Automatic annotation (TrEMBL):
Protein name according to UniProt: Nucleoside hydrolase
GO terms of molecular function: purine nucleosidase activity
GO CC annotations on file: cytosol
GO BP annotations, alphabetical order: purine nucleoside catabolic process
Origin species: Rhodocytophaga rosea
InterPro entries: Inosine/uridine_hydrolase_dom, IUNH, Ribo_hydro-like
Inosine/uridine-preferring nucleoside hydrolase domain mapped to chain residues: 5-301
Length: 309
């Protein structure tokens, strides 16, 4: 049976690779896409999203964009980077003039969840603000959410935020809007967290890209290889290394049994010097299924296999 999915992403290169991967999954029925203007400039992310939907012949999909700009902005250099994707030879000439109206993300989420005849799964590969605003607007949608899968947090490992007046304990997607992140846990949704604890195991490596390049006769492998190549110039220190963060979270929908999950009580710090920190807090009552390990080999094999299109 197919799974109904809403995908909320924030337009970084790995978010768009995640969209590419989701569009290869036969058991996933993508109902709507929402873009959070966090690790991107939304006009770029909307354009790439629409172009990938065009290649997949799914341009009838509703795209929403968030109008909330977070508490702690992403570095402008990171936000600007994915613009280059729209200039790649395989995407530059795709016509975007027939693209429909972009609605507000919160309205798209409320409407899609409310009107669905079965519970919807939600994949978040950026901050969770749009979903939290949607729930605040209409609490009844909580009943129609099957599961939320979120790439976010750093539980038993250091965070990846390096900025003024912060102790480095937070992961960026949580840090962008720590207040909404704190709220998300209070709803007691079935939440699967894919934190840095597990994404640290899957950096983007030249070894992987070389294997992917051997199958570049497949147009999708070729395009994915080009996307990944744009991430290789990052400065090789921890906070700049490019990982397969969001792609790992998306692959949870395809190969859930490749992951080890641990049921934990967490808390998220809404403010202060450790704003956005996700930490264990026994007794908090905020239960989350957190991924602690992944079978790397299966993950890489799965991605390579799916991209043979
Ligand atoms: O913290 C990981 C999240 C993921 O959703 N993002 C990137 C992924 O899309 C933020 C981020 C951390 N380090 C980065 C990031 C980097 N070096 N470049 C761009 N974004
Ligand atoms: Ca992201």
């Amino acid at each position: 049976m197919s799974k109904l999915l809403i995908f909320d992403h924030d337009g970084a290169v790995d978010d768009l690779l995640s969209l590419m991967l989701l569009l290869t999954m036969d058991h996933i029925q993508l109902k709507a896409i929402s873009i959070t203007p966090a690790d991107c400039y939304p006009e770029n992310a909307i354009e790439t999203t629409y172009k990938l939907l065009t290649l997949a012949r799914k341009t009838d999909m509703q795209i929403g964009a968030g109008n909330y700009y977070g508490i702690n902005a992403f570095p402008a250099e990171w936000r600007a980077k994915p613009k280059v994707l729209n200039a790649l030879p395989s995407l530059i000439n795709i016509d975007t003039s027939l693209q429909g109206q972009i609605k507000d993300s919160v309205d798209v989420l409320v409407h899609t969840i409310r009107s669905s005849d079965q519970p919807v799964t939600i994949l978040l590969t950026g901050p969770c603000s749009n979903l939290v605003f949607a729930i605040e607007q209409d609490k009844s949608i909580l009943q129609n959410i099957a599961e939320v899968i979120w790439m976010g947090g750093a539980v038993d490992v250091p965070g990846n935020v390096r900025t003024y007046n912060h102790d480095g304990s937070a992961e960026w997607n949580v840090f962008w809007d720590p207040v909404s992140s704190h709220k998300l846990l209070t709803y007691q949704l079935p939440l699967v967290l894919i934190p840095l604890d597990v994404t640290n195991m899957v950096p983007v490596s030249m070894g992987f890209l070389k294997i992917l390049a051997l199958q570049s006769d497949y147009p999708l492998s070729n395009l994915a290889g080009q996307f990944w190549a744009t991430t290789i110039d990052t400065i090789p220190s921890y906070e700049y290394t490019y990982f397969m963060w969001d792609i790992l979270a998306a692959s949870y929908l395809g190969i859930p049994d490749a992951f080890v999950l641990e049921k934990v009580e967490l808390e998220i710090q809404p403010n202060g010097h450790n704003s956005g920190q996700t930490f264990r807090k026994p007794g908090s009552g905020k239960w989350v299924q957190m991924a602690t390990h992944v079978n790397k080999e299966r993950f890489y094999q799965y991605v390579l296999q799916q991209l043979k299109r």
